Amino acid sequence: MKYVIIGGDAAGMSAAMQVLKFDHEAEITVLERGTIYSYGQCGLPYVISGEIESVGKLISRSVHTFRDKYGIDARINCRVDDVNAETKTVHGQDLSTGEAFSVDYDKLLVASGADPFTPNWEGNDLEGVHALKTIPDAESIMNCMEQGVRDVTIVGGGYIGLEMAEGFSTAGMRVRLLNRSAYVGKIFDQEMAEHIHQEAARQNIDVHLNEDVQKIIGKDKAEGVQTEKGEYRTDLVLVATGVTPNTAFLDGTGVKTGLNGAIQVNAHMETNVPDVYAAGDCALQYHKIKEEYDYIPLGTTANKQGRIAGMNMAGVNREFKGMTGTSILKFMDLSLGKTGLTEKEAEILKLPYEAVTVQGNDIAGYYPGAKMTYVKLVYRTDDFQLLGGQIIGEKGVDKRVDVLATALFMNMKVTDFEDVDLSYAPPYNGVWDPIQRAARKATR
């Protein structure tokens, strides 16, 4: 059986390892557009900040490991240009030689990921304008920083924008963040995001809200950013305005796509075209709480989808159970966690809902080092089903958002939380955890 995988990172190589596990006669060809396989993209901001010493620390398995140890035909610099689903052939170009190539398949996995989205601003091709998605992107940014960068402008207040605001600040840069909407961290409701704004001000990170970039100023190199409200001089511009699924090469195949051009898949990661599968940031994900497909590209989901795709390609029946959109990020001294639906999302879905917010200590209030934690729960009013949670604080956010994610996955109600047997000792918690306090408030 000939397996072809487009993309050599999280989803693609998770799938490849499962194919090897269950099909010992498999012939696997992986077509990677870049030169680096299987690395942790989420660690890139921490290499730039200096907290991780090198990009090499992020690579879990090299291309040589896949070739020499596992016998995979792991290719690099291979750009896929089109797929012929009738002849089961993948066509593209070797970027290192310029030569065309074609590869036949019995089973095809599209794990091509997503590319950074850059608005069509004047000047977005100037030197000093960067995106961050790959190791070469990070190396380019660090090379620029070595040229004496002191002032950085970040456009976009999502995951990458906030993580890189911290990264540049930690590296000693003056940081300005421009956001076109009313608050940063759009995965949160606005009143929860206010804690992010307060932390940015405390850390001397300038946040500009409701401000849209018009162009990037400069001749050969970026020297400033112009918005409708003013002009800002800067040495480096990081564009963090989201990503776009890399799926254009599927045009003409009949493969169905949905939100943002991401590929529609079923629970087995199959597309509507026979023997073509998809997984990772190029594919849609089933959202258990929304009960519909969504596009929330996360590394955790990419690895799970890739693993399940590989098993099904090799003939092992396994279903993707869905996701709840659980994520966490670090912003200076705060941890920001979210799972399930926000109040805003519940309203869009026209669900009968209410929300409660509480604040309390992350550990016993009398124990040294206690820090304030803010918890928001969203739940249905007709049956008290938990819909989502948001948690922001300095410590203990990770364990609490994972408790909520587990509760969502198991269809728990807020009325169940009071009975959950959570651990307690003064250095770790109070007798009533903040999420239990929030649940009690919801059910009074």
Q: Can you describe this structure?
A:
- The protein has about 450 residues and is α/β, with parallel strands linked by helices.
- It folds into 3 domains: about 1-115 and about 245-315, FAD/NAD(P)-binding domain, CATH 3.50.50.60; about 120-240, FAD/NAD(P)-binding domain, CATH 3.50.50.60; about 335-440, FAD/NAD-linked reductase, C-terminal dimerisation domain (Enolase-like, domain 1, 2-Layer Sandwich).
- Helices cover about 25% and strands about 25% of the residues.
- It is built from 10 helices and 25 strands.
- The chain has helices at about 10-20, 45-50, 65-70, 135-145, 160-170, 190-200, 300-315, 345-350, 395-410, 435-440; strands at about 1-5, 25-30, 75, 80-85, 90-95, 100-105, 105-110, 115, 130, 150-155, 175-180, 205-210, 215, 225, 230-235, 235-240, 245, 275-280, 285, 290-295, 325-330, 335-340, 355-360, 370-380, 385-395.
- The strands form 7 sheets. A 5-stranded parallel sheet has the order 3-2-1-7-18.
- A hairpin with a 3-residue loop joins strand 14 and strand 15.
- Helix 1 packs parallel to helix 7 (about 300-315).
Write down how many β-strands occur, each being a DSSP E stretch of 2 or more residues. Answer: 25
- From the alpha carbons, calculate the radius of gyration and give it in angstroms: 23 Å
Beta-strand portion reads 25-35%
The CATH class designation of the largest domain is Alpha Beta
State the distance separating the first and last CA atoms: 60 Å
CATH topology (fold) name of the largest domain = FAD/NAD(P)-binding domain
- Number of helices in the DSSP assignment: 10
Low-confidence stretches are none
Overall average residue pLDDT: 97
Shape, principal axes of CA atoms: globular
**Corresponding CATH superfamily of the largest domain:** FAD/NAD(P)-binding domain
> Which CATH architecture of the largest domain would you pick?
3-Layer(bba) Sandwich
Helix coverage percent of residues? 10-25%
Our count of domains comes out at: 3
Largest sheet: 5 strands, parallel
Neighbour order of strands in the largest sheet: 3-2-1-7-18
**Helix/strand-derived class?**
alpha/beta
